[in-house]
TrEMBL record:
Keywords assigned: Carbohydrate metabolism, Kinase, Transferase, Xylose metabolism
Any GO molecular function: kinase activity
Species of origin: Streptomyces yaizuensis
Signal sequence annotation: none
Keyword Kinase: yes
A Pfam family hit: FGGY_C
The protein's name in its UniProt record: Carbohydrate kinase
Domain Carbohydrate kinase FGGY N-terminal: 4-207
Tree of life domain: Bacteria
Domain Carbohydrate kinase FGGY C-terminal: 271-426
C-alpha cells in the first residue's frame, strides 16, 4: 500500500507527516527551528531550517514502512531567502515577521506606491514581504544582493537543495511581484519599488508547481517531490476549501483568514493579498493578520500560565472578560491585514486590582477572535468556515471563536499544511486520491446564540477602539 509524505517548513517548527491512502496520519516527525528577534528584526538560519527538513525526512523514512509514492513540500511564505547558485545562503533569511522596512512602507503609503502596487498585483505590502525587504537590502546591503543568485522563499530554498531545481510557484510569487491575471511577474511593480535592476534575483515561476526527485544522499532517493504551494494555500487544500465563498481560519503563529474566490477585485481597500493557485481562474483572498497564537503565548509567559490551563481559565470568567479588552496587535512590524499599519501596537485596557489571570487570558482570546472576524469579513466570507492550526487544541477557545464569529466551525485537525502539500503533489502528478476523505472535518462546533449576539455588539466596540488606536499609531 502506497504511502505519502508532506513536509511543512514552518516559522518555529519543521514537520514531516506520513499519510496512508485515505489521508490518515501514520506518523509525524518534527524539529524546532530558531527565530532570531532583535530590535524589530527577525531572521533565520537557512542551514538550520534545511537540516531540520532532512532530519525529519530521515526519521520518518526510518519509522514508516514504504513504499512512498510522492512527497509534497510546503513552508512559510514571504520574507527574503537569499541564496547562491547551489541554493546555499549568502546571508541569514529575513523572516516575514521582520520590521526593518517599516519606515520604507510608511513612505510608500504616503507616496501612493502601496496602493498602485495593489491595483496591479492585488497584494498590499507590509514590512516583512519581499518587496520592502529587497528594497531595504538594496539600500543598506547592496553588496549582498550583488553576490546572491536568487531571492527565493523558504520552501524554494529547501526544494533546490533537495532536488537541484531552482523555482518558485504562483502562490509564493503572488506577494507582491505577480500579476494575478497573467500569472507572470509584473515589471511595472518592480519599477514602482525601485527594483527593476534586481529583476534577475526573482526565481523562475513554475506553473504548475515544479516536480523533482530526491538526490542520491537521501534515504528516499529517487522519490518525486513537488515544491509548493506555500503554507497558507496548502492549508486551504488540506482543509477542503475550494468552493467560492468558503473560508479557512488558521489559528497559528500567524492568524490567517482565507476565502476562495473566482475573481480578483483590485478596487477595494489595499489590504491582504490575492494568492494565485495551481488552478487558473481560482484565487484565495487572504487576510493574514500578523499575530495569532503568538499573542496568547506572550500573555501566558507574562502571567506564568501553561497552555494546559487555558481551557479552564476561559471557563472561569464570563464573555466580555469583566471589562478587560485586548487589541491583539503584538507584532513588532505592526499589522498587515485587513489593513496595513506598521506602527500599530497591542493595547490592554480595563485592568484593575480586581482583574484575574482568567480575565487577561479570555480578553486576549476574544481580541484575537475579533481580529479574525474583521479579516474574514474583509475577505468576503459567505460560505462555510473551516478552522485549523495549533489553536484547535483548545476546545474552549474553539467555542469562543464560534461565538465571536457567529457561525459553525468545521474543525480540521492534524497536519493540515502537510496534507495540502500532498494533495497538491498528487494533483500535479496525476495520482488519484479521495479528496473528500482526506479533508473531512474532525468535528463541527456550533455557536451559542445568546453569546453570539453578545459578541456581535462587543465586535462593534472592538472596531471603534481599533479605529482610535490606528489614529494614535499614525500620529506617532
Amino acid at each position: 500500500m502506497a504511502r505519502y509524505i508532506g513536509i511543512d517548513a514552518g516559522t518555529s517548527m519543521v514537520k514531516a507527516a506520513a499519510f496512508d491512502e485515505r489521508g490518515q496520519v501514520l506518523r509525524v516527525e518534527s524539529r524546532p527551528v530558531a527565530l532570531s528577534l532583535q530590535s524589530g528584526r527577525a531572521e533565520q538560519d537557512m542551514d538550520e531550517v534545511y537540516g531540520a527538513v532532512t532530519a525529519v525526512l530521515s526519521a520518518l523514512a526510518a519509522a514508516v514502512e514504504g513504499p512512498f509514492a510522492l512527497i509534497g513540500l510546503t513552508g512559510q511564505g514571504d520574507g527574503v531567502w537569499l541564496v547562491d547558485e547551489s541554493g546555499r545562503p549568502v546571508r541569514a533569511a529575513v523572516s516575514w515577521m521582520d520590521g526593518r522596512a517599516g519606515e520604507l512602507v510608511d513612505a510608500w503609503q504616503s507616496a501612493g506606491v502601496v496602493e498602485r502596487v495593489f491595483r496591479r498585483s492585488g497584494s498590499a505590502m507590509f514590512p516583512g514581504c519581499p518587496g520592502p525587504v529587497l528594497a531595504w537590502l538594496d539600500q543598506h546591503e547592496p553588496a549582498v544582493l550583488d553576490t546572491a543568485a536568487a531571492a527565493v522563499y523558504c520552501k524554494d530554498m529547501v526544494f533546490q537543495r533537495l532536488t537541484g531545481i531552482r523555482a518558485t510557484d504562483v502562490s509564493d510569487a503572488s506577494m507582491p511581484f505577480l500579476d494575478p491575471r497573467t500569472r507572470t511577474y509584473d515589471d511595472e511593480v518592480l519599477r514602482e519599488l525601485g527594483l527593476a535592476h534586481r529583476r534577475g534575483l526573482l526565481p523562475p515561476v513554475s506553473d504548475p508547481i515544479a516536480v523533482g526527485t530526491l538526490g542520491a544522499d537521501s534515504p528516499l532517493a529517487g522519490t518525486p517531490v513537488t515544491g509548493g504551494p506555500y503554507d497558507l494555500p496548502a492549508c486551504a487544500l488540506g482543509a477542503g476549501v475550494t468552493e467560492a465563498g468558503d473560508g479557512l481560519l488558521i489559528v497559528g503563529t500567524c492568524l490567517a483568514s482565507l476565502v476562495s474566490v473566482r475573481e480578483v477585485d483590485l478596487a477595494g481597500e489595499p489590504a491582504g493579498l490575492h494568492i494565485s493557485t495551481d488552478r487558473p481562474g481560482h484565487w484565495l483572498r487572504a487576510m493574514p493578520a500578523m499575530v495569532g497564537t503568538a499573542a496568547l503565548d506572550w500573555v501566558l509567559r507574562t502571567t506564568g500560565v501553561s497552555h494546559s490551563e487555558v481551557d479552564g481559565l476561559l471557563d472561569a470568567t464570563p464573555p466580555g472578560s469583566r471589562g478587560v479588552r485586548v487589541l491583539p496587535y503584538f507584532a513588532p512590524s505592526g499589522e498587515r491585514a485587513p489593513f496595513v499599519e506598521p506602527r500599530l501596537r497591542a493595547e490592554l485596557t480595563g485592568v484593575s486590582l480586581e482583574t484575574t489571570t482568567a480575565d487577561l487570558v479570555r480578553a486576549t482570546c476574544e481580541g484575537i477572535g475579533f481580529a479574525a472576524r474583521h479579516c474574514l469579513e474583509a475577505a468576503g466570507l459567505t460560505g462555510s468556515l473551516a478552522i485549523c492550526g495549533g489553536g484547535t487544541r483548545s476546545p474552549a477557545w474553539m467555542r469562543l471563536f464560534a461565538e465571536v464569529l457567529g457561525r459553525p466551525l468545521r474543525i480540521v485537525e492534524g497536519e493540515v499544511g502537510a496534507r495540502g502539500a500532498v494533495l497538491a503533489s498528487a494533483a500535479r502528478q496525476g495520482v488519484a486520491l479521495d479528496v473528500a476523505a482526506w479533508t473531512a472535518p474532525t468535528a463541527v462546533v456550533e455557536p451559542d446564540p445568546a453569546r453570539a449576539e453578545f459578541y456581535t455588539k462587543a465586535y462593534d466596540d472592538h472596531l471603534q477602539r481599533l479605529a482610535a488606536a490606528r489614529d494614535r499609531a499614525r500620529a506617532t
